Amino acid sequence: MKKSLCLLIASAMSAVSFAQGDAFEWLTFSLTDGSEVAVAAENLSLNFSDGVLRLSSASVDTSFDVANLRSMRFTSDASGIADVEALPAARAEYFTVAGVSAGVFDSVDDARAALTSGMYIARSESRSWKVMF
Asked: Is 97 helix (H, G, I), strand (E, B) or coil?
């Protein structure tokens, strides 16, 4: 009996330490328009009020309408979007890292001329890619 109890306690302690080792650094939100927004999970505060999800931490202060959220999940990386080069003639819609549309442009050069410096997610009909200006 004691042996079984000790084995059970050891198994539970092992499971807890394993779970703590899988620290997820990002909370990723999938929105109904198909975009995804990732925010750092460290010291993140979530508040649901009047149909709005408010997120706040030292690095982010933003909100989403709950009706526009499809799902949220913890991830170990900020984005599943690969780093690829865009074709200069690719027509795409550009989004800020917060998921807000910054406009539709006929080429990367047009987007670069119109947008402020920073990181954007470009989305065409067939793919999405990360762009830094």
From this structure: coil
Q: How many CA atoms lie within 13 A of 17 on its CB side?
A: 6
**Of the candidates 123, 118, 119, 116, the residue with the CA atom closest to the CA atom of residue 94:** 123
The residues, any chain, with a CB within 8 Å of residue 101's CB and separated by 6 or more, are 93, 94, 95
Q: How far apart are CA 100 and CA 123, in angstroms?
A: 12
Domains plus CATH for the chain? 2-75 (2.30.30), 92-132 (no CATH)
Q: What is the pTM of this model?
A: 0.45
CB 42 within 8 A of CB 53: no
Task: Burial-class residue 31 by CB neighbours within 10 Å (0-12, 13-18, 19+).
Answer: middle
For 32-75, the pLDDT digits (tens) are: 877 788 888 888 888 888 888 888 887 778 888 888 888 888 88
Query: Is it the case that residue 22 has pLDDT exceeding 50?
Result: yes
Question: What pLDDT band is residue 78 in, cutting at 50, 70 and 90?
Answer: low
